[in-house]
Design goal:
- It is a single chain.
- By secondary structure, the protein is an alpha+beta fold.
- The protein has 2 domains: 224 residues, FAD/NAD(P)-binding domain (3-Layer(bba) Sandwich), CATH 3.50.50.60; 123 residues, 2-Layer Sandwich (D-Amino Acid Oxidase, Chain A, domain 2), CATH 3.30.9.10.
- Helix content is 35%, strand content 28%.
- The strands form 4 sheets. An 8-stranded mixed beta sheet has the order 6-5-14-15-16-13-17-20, with helices on both faces. A 6-stranded mixed beta sheet has the order 8-2-1-12-19-18, covered by helices on one side. The protein has a 3-stranded antiparallel beta sheet with strand order 3-7-4.
- Helix 1 links the parallel strand 1 and strand 2.
- The chain starts with a strand and ends in a 5-residue tail after the last helix.
- The structure holds flavin-adenine dinucleotide and 3,4-dihydroxybenzoic acid.
- The site of flavin-adenine dinucleotide (FAD) has 32 residues, from helix 1, strand 9 and helix 8.
- Keywords: Monooxygenase, NAD, Oxidoreductase.
- This is 4-hydroxybenzoate 3-monooxygenase.
- It comes from Rhodocytophaga rosea.
Length: 390
């Protein structure tokens, strides 16, 4: 079987790519090893940058996002119980973020793909890439226990951190960078009315907490926990008590409710500095991971795809290869910016050394500087909402 672009992975990256290509009249087939139900219910991120929302509008996949997404114009940063607001719309000339769950994004993108006739093969696991140096590379995959081959002019590796695409790049082509953090996040979803209309990132002596939300009746909350901690150690009462302590500030009341999702995620920064080999191009978590503080993961995946789609379209429509050759260089500028910002936010808010230590005072000083300097607050705001162009 043959198509123009073989896409591995039906996450935000792969699905967005297929839709952009379709809009330009280019055919693709998506291979996804999980079931549709599984990818549509996988709970992950929730913060969409302005650029991401704009792209979903351009693709006409934003009807429900427009209805149900929550537009945020500011964010609260809290340190030792002292809270300040960063009005990012004022500081960035009106740029905002939208809160809308990743699984809702994925549902909308899948529905749009299927209604436009884009072929998504669920339960089809790619396991080998061949002919990457040729003009006719192919993906060998297994569907219903039968081995199949999909040939294409390009392969888009959108198969996440644990996928096979990155492993197909020759090692000597790139350097990789990894940083593991000495803490993890316990994330919950609860049927609880949000306790604040806007997000709250909070440092306390007990560790970090984040208050986020999904709707008027669903809260999304996170707690810094030790690496190797397990959800069995966190009965619901303990979670609410800890969140209440870490989000405390004068007059704040934490709304509680039934917890229906509880997961621990490790934190890492990871990247490779070259995202292409022959006719294989990588995007999203397949090429980079940022720690979640700041909500950049999904947005970066979509930003990569903008460059990749643009390069494929220029090739198919005008037979030009320049954008293909510049893909890594172009995408990496934003990726490094997001790596730095995510690392900055992670160090600003997590307890990483003794309360009262040198590191603690640096964190506190940065926090105070936000209040003292509009320039500093603006720098944080423009990174948080996402730079328009990098
Ligand atoms: P993915 O969404 O991972 O999609 C890759 C797809 O490829 C998957 O559907 C997978 O099943 C499929 N696949 C893998 N291997 C194969 C194969 N061999 N053959 C076929 N298909 C394959 N980001 C934030 O900004 N905030 C958060 O709070 C946050 N929380 C997260 C929590 C968890 C547990 C995880 C794992 C990630 C989280 N992220 C968060 C990151 C964010 O969700 C990712 O950055 C985003 O999903 C990246 O999209 P992607 O399309 O590149 O990869
Ligand atoms: C969410 C996750 C994040 O990592 C973040 O920085 C903000 C919001 C969320 O899941 O809502």
């Amino acid at each position: 079987e043959t198509t123009q672009v073989a896409i591995i992975g039906a996450g935000p990256a792969g699905l967005t790519l297929a839709l952009l290509l379709h809009q330009a009249g280019i055919e693709s087939i998506i291979l996804e090893n999980r079931t549709r139900a599984y990818v549509e219910s996988r709970v992950r991120a929730g913060l969409l940058e302005q650029n991401t929302v704009d792209l979903f509008h351009e693709l006409s996949v934003a009807d429900r996002l427009k209805q149900e997404g929550l537009l945020h114009k500011g964010v609260y940063f809290s340190f030792d119980g002292q809270r300040q607001r960063i009005p990012f719309d004022e500081l960035t000339g009106g740029r905002c973020i939208t809160i809308y769950g990743q699984q809702e994004v994925v549902k909308d993108l899948i529905a749009a793909c299927l209604s436009r006739g884009i072929d998504i093969r669920f339960e089809s696991e790619a396991f080998l890439l061949e002919g990457l140096e040729t003009h006719a590379p192919s993906v060998i995959y297994v569907e219903n226990n039968v081995q199949q081959q999909l040939s294409a002019q390009f392969i888009a590796g959108c198969d996440g951190f644990h996928g096979i695409s990155r492993k197909a790049l020759p090692n000597k082509l790139y350097s990789s960078f990894i940083k593991e953090y000495p803490f993890s996040w316990l994330g919950i979803l609860a049927n609880a009315k949000p306790s604040s209309e806007e997000l709250i990132y909070s440092y306390t002596e007990r560790g970090f907490a984040l208050h986020s939300l999904r709707s008027e009746s669903v809260s999304r909350l996170y707690l810094q926990v030790e690496n190797n901690d397990s959800v069995e150690n966190w009965p619901d009462d303990r979670i609410w008590e800890e969140l209440s302590k870490r989000l405390h500030t004068d007059g704040f009341v934490l709304n509680t409710g039934t917890i229906f999702e509880k997961t621990i995620t490790p934190m890492r920064s990871f990247m490779i500095d070259h995202m292409q080999y022959g006719r294989l191009f990588l995007a999203g978590d397949a090429a980079h991971i940022v720690p979640p503080t700041g909500g950049k993961g999904l947005n970066l995946a979509v930003a990569d795809i903008r460059w990749m789609a643009d390069a494929f379209i220029d090739f198919f429509q005008h037979n030009r290869e320049e954008k293909l050759n510049n893909y890594s260089t172009n995408a990496l500028r934003r990726i490094w910016r997001a790596q730095d910002f995510s690392n900055f936010m992670t160090y600003l808010f997590h307890k990483q050394a003794a309360h009262g230590s040198f590191e603690y005072h640096l964190q506190k000083s940065k926090f105070d500087y936000i209040r003292l300097s509009k320039a500093y607050a603006t720098s944080i705001a423009e990174n948080y909402v996402g730079l328009k162009e990098v």
